[in-house]
Amino acid sequence: MKKLCGILIICLCFVGIMRQAHADIDKDKAVEMVENLTKEGIEKIINSNASPQEKNEIFRKLFSENLDLDFIGRYVLGRYWRTASASQKKEFINLYREFNVITWSKRFDEFKGKKFVFSGTSSASNPNQIFVNTKVPMEEGNPVSVKWRVCDHNNKLKIIDIIIENVSLAQTARNEYTAFIAKSPKGLEGLLENLREKIKQ
């Protein structure tokens, strides 16, 4: 009986430790982070008279500081991440960041003169993640829905996905890139060559 009680106490302590390790993400801090990113970063740059090169440089800094590119890179490559070499992983992360800098520098121009309106948060399946919900009112049609998936990793908040009009950027990239690798005679190296070429263009 004493042994059974001892085992139960150990189990309860273990559960308590696990609950602490997987504590829910701080909603207020997640919202504050995305507010700083949108208001002090994205809105300022898209509404400025900065050149495309200057915009790209600012977006590059914003992405590096606020996005967990290593996490996103692993997710986007799926099973191919495990078989990639260290140099391929590093190059993919750099190319993926650069490609998105150029893409989103242009995409966010659609929101010129607009502001992100915050509409609370919604829970994710992982307690260490949360969705920060925003909308961008447009002159015509319905507001554009933009959801930011924020993750707490070792007490550091990072964005791991952006969902625009219910389309996940990470999932879309994963579907596109893994399909490309599967069809390419060069596999992952073929994808890296493709991204290099797109960035040059």
Write the layout of secondary structure elements.
Layout: H1 2-21, H2 27-46, H3 52-66, H4 69-77, H5 80-83, H6 86-107, E1 117-123, E2 129-136, E3 144-153, E4 156-164, E5 167-168, H7 169-183, H8 188-200
Antiparallel strand pairs: 1-2, 2-3, 3-4, 4-5
The CATH topology corresponds to: Nuclear Transport Factor 2, Chain: A
List the helices and strands in order.
HHHHHHEEEEEHH
Instruction: Provide the gyration radius in Å.
Output: 20 Å
Q: What portion of the residues fall into strands of 2 or more residues?
A: 15-25%
Under the CATH scheme, the architecture is Roll
Low-confidence parts lasting 5 or more residues at pLDDT below 50?
A: 2-22
Specify the overall morphology: globular
Q: How confident overall, as mean pLDDT?
A: 86
What's the structural domain tally?
1
Helices and strands: which structural class? Answer: alpha+beta
- Gap from first CA to last CA: 73 Å
CATH class equals: Alpha Beta
Major sheet: 5 strands, antiparallel
CATH superfamily: Tgt2/MlaC
Count of individual helical segments: 8
Helix proportion: 55-70%
Give the strand order of the largest sheet, numbering strands 1, 2, ... along the chain.
Answer: 1-2-3-4-5
Number of strands: 5
